[in-house]
Amino acid sequence: MEAGKVTLIGLVGKPNAGKSTFFKASTSSDVEIANYPFTTIGSNRGVAFIRDECPHKELDVKCDPNNSRCINGTRFVPVQLIDVAGLVPGAYKGKGLGNEFLDQLRQADALIHVVDASGSTDLKGNPVESDEHDPTEDIGFLENEIKMWLYGILNEKWGSIVKKVENENNKLLDEISNKYTGIGIKKRSIKLSLNKTQLDQEKPSKWNKSDIVEVAEEIRKQSKPILISANKVDISSEENIKKITKKHQPTVPTGAKAELILQKAEKKGYINYVPGESSFEIIEPSKITEEQKKGLDFIKENILDKYDGTGVQKSLEKTVRDLLNMIVVYPVEDESDYTNKQGETLPDAYLLKKGSTPKDLARKIHSEIADKYLYAKDAKSGRRISDDTELKNGDVIKIVSSA
Ligand SMILES: Nc1nc2c(ncn2[C@@H]2O[C@H](COP(=O)(O)OP(=O)(O)OP(=O)(O)O)[C@@H](O)[C@H]2O)c(=O)[nH]1
Prior knowledge:
Number of strands: 15
CATH superfamily of the largest domain: P-loop containing nucleotide triphosphate hydrolases
Order of helices and strands: EHEEHEEHEHHHHHEHEHEEHHEEHHEEE
CATH class of the largest domain: Alpha Beta
Shape: flat
Oligomer: single chain
Largest sheet: 8 strands, mixed
CATH architecture of the largest domain: 3-Layer(aba) Sandwich
Structural class: alpha/beta
Low-confidence stretches: 32-40
Bound molecules: guanosine-5'-triphosphate
Mean pLDDT: 90
Number of domains: 3
Distance between the termini: 24 Å
């Protein structure tokens, strides 16, 4: 991921799986975070949030968040969500995945695949009798689409790749990286993928089609990891959820519609509810109708209690934390009181890859701060830390630079 770039999650799924519902439920919450200035970026782009325990509690200070929000000690750190439209099964065989689809796919760091776990819609999203369609079929097809798209890019130029490696002594890693630079796949991902396959990188002329496909699949896993959101849990059989979970990890059982209903009830002042939590509280029971009470009870019993929440927030957080391996770090300019130049306490929260060093954090803040980086301090202990220190989730760090 490039320095300074906001983490971008692509939302994909066949028509009718509940993608728009998931998108709306993740990006239009009316809880205080909604005042965030760029919650709606465009028709299909929005800001969603990852929760983290705000260090203000541990440090016993009052925070003034700038690039994020703090609600009752929970910091909501922004990520971008893009609703990737136009997924059609088998497209790669014919005219190829739609241009718009590919363009948005290129930008995404990871994907959440919203699957209709109830089996009530077929591969194209048309309604069928409940449970008639096997939802696990939907999973394989998306992975296959992306894999074959990546394979196609390599296969088209395979002859020249082989020549460059075997006749001109170029490295296979460099040659493959060149083919994928336009679609934003990092050399590091390709290196990991090639090593994983254990194919002979000096003799690509010996590779057959399935070897190239194997490499494409490894690159897919590294560069576009997928989380399955097994949606419509309220009308899905437990067996379907189990089948999907068995076929793909990670899978999160999700009730996107329930999440939206809870947020609406919160907006109307009927309940207290914060997205991601596994319970809500009815504010004034006399204000809601018997029907509404029944609906809320249904959500509590069949979704919140059973799956520990609606799964929308969990899907986003698992994608960022487990698939993208990210941590939250809090940079400050004055380590004695954890403030920036404006005197705001713990103003910013940044997402960084696990294994990031203080200099990576500097790069995320500003290229000039990175260029003129001198050293870093752990604000919690007040001690200077070495340049190769691996930052931890929740670290509060001061970067000293001559900028
Ligand atoms: N029972 C149930 N229905 C849901 C859930 N999430 C979405 N739906 C319904 O499924 C239908 C399709 O939802 P959308 O969010 O429009 O689906 P989509 O995937 O965006 O579909 P396209 O816009 O056609 O691509 C709607 O009637 C939703 O109300 C859920 O968790 N449970």
